Amino acid sequence: MSGSAVTPPKGRATRARNDSSGGRSVISPKLQWLLAIVLALGVMGAVFYFGRDVRSDYNGAPAEAPAVVIDTLGI
Question: Would the pLDDT of 64 be above 60?
Fold first, then answer.
């Protein structure tokens, strides 16, 4: 018996025995997910970093607003 008795699915050409390209990806699925997550975090970080107003004079203190007092007695 030869090494492999399995034939390819219909419509698919049979590969030669000495053909080393098996249609496999260069990087594994785990590495693809890792790269996708790192890329997504990088894009989100860039959006948050470059999306802020760098010339803002906001110092973290609450804004000063005039106090409005409503006289409920009408006097």
Answer: yes
